[in-house]
C-alpha cells in the first residue's frame, strides 16, 4: 500500500460532524466502545443527590429558624424566605460538589468535560448569547402580561422587602441557572437523547458498530430530549406561581430555547449564561420599577 504524499497529508480534511468530545478522537488512544455519558442512570443518581441535599438543608434551615425565633416550622417557612434561600443555596453547593467528585470517578474524566460544559464556546459566543437571554426574557415577560395569574402566589413572598429581593436575585442569577442547567441540560437532555437513540437503533451489525464508534446523537433524539426534558423544568416552577398553567407554558417555551442553545453550541456553559441573562433582565426590570427594591409594593399594582 502506497503512503500518502506530503501534500495530501498536509491538506486539511473537512469536518463532517461536530467534534465528539466524549470519545477518543485519536485512533492510537482508542480504549474500546464509546461511553455514552451521562445516561439515564447518571441522571437519576444526580437528581436523587440534589433532592436529598436540598431537602436536608431546607429542613435544617426551617428547624434552626423556628428554634431561634421560637415559632412553628410553618411560620418559619412562610415568614423567613431569606433564611430558606440561604439553606437552599447551601444544598445546591453541596449537591454540586458531591456530584463533581462522584461523577468524575464514575466517568473517569473531569466533571465539566463529561457534562460538555465547554467554556470555550461561551468565550467565543457570549456577545451573541447575552442579547438572546435579554430578548427572551423581555418576550416572556410581555407574554405573561396577557396570562392571568392568581394573587398571593408563593413567589410573592420572596419580594416583601429589599433584603429578600436581593437574596432572591442573587440566587436566581447565580446559583439557580447553574444548578438547573447542569440538571436539565447537562444530565437529563443527553440522557434522554441517548435512550431515544438506543430504542431507535437498528439491531444490525452496522447499527451496533455505529453505536460503539460514536456518542453523537441523532437530530430526532435531540428534539425528543428537548421536548421531554422541558416538562419537568417547567413543572418545578409551577408551585411558585400557584400552578398558573399559562405561565407554566411560557416557562416550557423558555426551556425549549435554552435546550436549543445547549444543542447548537454543544455547551452547558452557554445555556447557563443565557439562563442567567434571562433572570438578570427580570430583576433589572424589578429593580428599576421599585426604586432599587425600596418600594416593593409597586409590584402589586
| Helix amount | 55-70%
How many alpha or pi helices?
Answer: 11
Radius of gyration: 23 Å
Q: Averaging pLDDT over every residue, what do you get?
A: 88
Shape category:
globular
Strand content: under 5%
Structural class: mainly alpha
Counting DSSP E segments of at least 2 residues, the number of strands comes to 0
Distance between the termini: 80 Å
- Written as H for each helix and E for each strand, in order along the chain, the element string is HHHHHHHHHHH
Largest sheet: none
Oligomer designation: single chain
Q: Note poorly predicted spans.
A: 6-30
Explain this structure.
The chain has 301 residues and is mostly helical. The protein has a domain at 115-300. 69% of the residues lie in helices and 0% in strands. The chain is globular. Residues 6-30 have low confidence and may be disordered.
Which labels suit this protein?
about 300 residues; mainly alpha; 11 helices; globular
Short note summarizing the structure:
With 301 residues, the chain is an all-alpha fold. It has helices at 6-10, 40-69, 73-79, 81-107, 111-115, 119-144, 162-200, 205-213, 219-235, 245-265, 268-289. The protein has a domain at 115-300.
Amino acid at each position: 500500500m502506497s503512503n500518502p504524499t506530503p501534500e495530501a497529508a498536509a491538506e486539511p480534511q473537512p469536518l463532517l460532524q461536530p467534534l465528539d468530545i466524549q470519545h477518543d478522537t485519536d485512533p492510537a488512544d482508542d480504549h474500546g466502545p464509546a461511553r455514552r455519558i451521562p445516561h439515564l442512570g447518571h441522571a437519576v443518581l444526580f437528581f436523587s443527590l440534589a433532592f436529598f441535599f436540598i431537602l436536608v438543608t431546607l429542613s435544617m434551615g426551617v428547624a434552626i429558624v423556628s428554634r431561634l425565633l421560637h415559632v412553628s416550622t410553618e411560620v418559619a417557612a412562610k415568614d423567613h424566605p431569606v433564611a430558606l434561600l440561604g439553606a437552599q443555596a447551601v444544598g445546591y453547593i453541596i449537591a454540586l460538589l458531591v456530584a463533581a467528585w462522584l461523577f468524575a470517578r464514575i466517568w473517569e474524566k473531569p466533571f465539566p468535560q463529561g457534562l460538555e460544559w465547554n467554556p470555550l464556546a461561551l468565550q467565543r459566543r457570549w456577545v451573541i448569547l447575552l442579547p438572546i437571554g435579554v430578548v427572551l426574557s423581555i418576550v416572556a415577560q410581555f407574554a405573561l402580561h396577557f396570562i392571568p395569574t392568581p394573587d398571593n402566589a408563593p413567589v410573592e413572598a420572596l419580594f416583601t422587602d429589599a433584603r429578600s429581593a436581593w437574596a432572591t436575585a442573587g440566587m436566581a442569577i447565580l446559583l439557580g441557572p447553574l444548578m438547573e442547567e447542569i440538571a436539565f441540560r447537562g444530565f437529563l437532555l443527553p440522557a434522554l437523547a441517548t435512550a431515544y437513540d438506543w430504542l431507535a437503533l437498528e439491531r444490525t451489525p452496522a447499527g451496533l458498530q455505529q453505536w460503539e464508534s460514536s456518542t453523537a446523537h441523532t437530530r430526532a433524539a435531540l428534539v425528543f430530549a428537548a421536548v421531554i426534558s422541558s416538562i419537568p423544568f417547567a413543572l418545578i416552577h409551577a408551585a411558585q406561581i400557584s400552578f398558573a398553567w399559562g405561565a407554566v407554558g411560557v416557562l416550557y417555551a423558555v426551556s425549549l430555547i435554552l435546550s436549543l442553545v445547549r444543542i447548537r453550541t454543544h455547551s452547558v456553559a452557554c445555556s447557563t449564561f443565557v439562563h442567567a441573562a434571562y433572570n438578570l433582565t427580570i430583576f433589572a426590570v424589578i429593580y428599576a420599577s421599585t426604586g432599587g427594591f425600596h418600594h416593593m409594593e409597586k409590584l402589586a399594582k
